[in-house]
Specification:
Layout (H helix, E strand, L loop, with lengths): L10 E7 L6 H11 L4 E6 L6 H7 L3 E4 L5 H11 L4 E4 L11 H10 L4 E6 L9 H18 L11 E4 H6 L9 H12 L3 E6 L14 H19 L1 H30 L5 H41 L17 H9 L1
Parallel strand pairs: 1-2, 1-4, 2-3, 5-7
Antiparallel strand pairs: 4-6, 5-6
Helix pairs in contact: 5-8, 7-8, 8-9, 9-10
Amino acid sequence: MPHAVRHEPVIAVLLPCYNEELTIGEVVRRFRETLPSAAIYVYDNNSKDLTALKARAAGANVVREPRQGKGNVVRRMFADIDADIYVMADGDGTYAPEDAPQLINVLLTERSDMVVGTRRGVTDDAGRNGHAFGNRVFNRLYKSLFGTDFTDIFSGYRVFSRRFVKSFPAVSGGFEIETEMSVHASQLKLPVSEMALDYGRRPEGSSSKLSTFRDGARILWMFAMLMKETQPLRFFGTFALFFLAASIGLMIPVLVEFAETGLVPRMPTWVLSIGMLLLAMLSMMTGLILDSVSRGRAEQKRIFYLSISSGRAERPASGQASPKSEPRKASRAA
């Protein structure tokens, strides 16, 4: 009996970079040593230093993405590159390339669509207390809004299946892209895993591109937008409760005064309370309608996700004929 041909997955290493000339060469070399069969891609996001040159000299395929922002780079990488397994890391050297085989192993053995390398030192965050505080706040907020699938939503070290990459819409433009990835997985209830890894510090002379307040505000805005898109009833229901509480608060004194005197001397207050009540009703109806739309969109996303080959189909063991080979044998015998 013929032996089944073993299929080796095609692995692509994706490294979005902006001004990382001090570290990118070493990162590429270590990934080449750790994953010798993988294709390594460095997407240079308008670097003003020698990032592209150092990456190319180290053996990476270098592509320039002119739209500024990590989200724009990730969207371009996911669209351009075809592979079975995608390893995404940062080019600053804070993630160890030597951990990639473990992440890939988790992806394959647990049949996950995304494995997140959570950072053991995330509360230190390379010495920046503002980042550490933001990580704690946003991770707790994520759990309360979208679920408990993740403990480190901002980790840049991730491994994806082809099915995840090609079904991910990637609408974010900046550092909030990791949040969007996490919400996409939580909304569709995709199989995901986490693995705790050591998180290094940048070398001397290398600075973080993350702005505590600017990017924190953008991430908070992304939380609100993703909640509106994925949980509109909860989102607009919150506004409805606010308007309803305001309406009742304004209405009660007017009603009490009317019951005592039979007069409504504060007509503007009464009109405002009725307006608040109408806004509450309008917000609730908006949430109900958009909730149905959101469910339909989620179903379509799920169907599209399932239409993409996972690349993990069970193959016959050595010495066993594949199901498709039986008809061919029968036809020869006939």
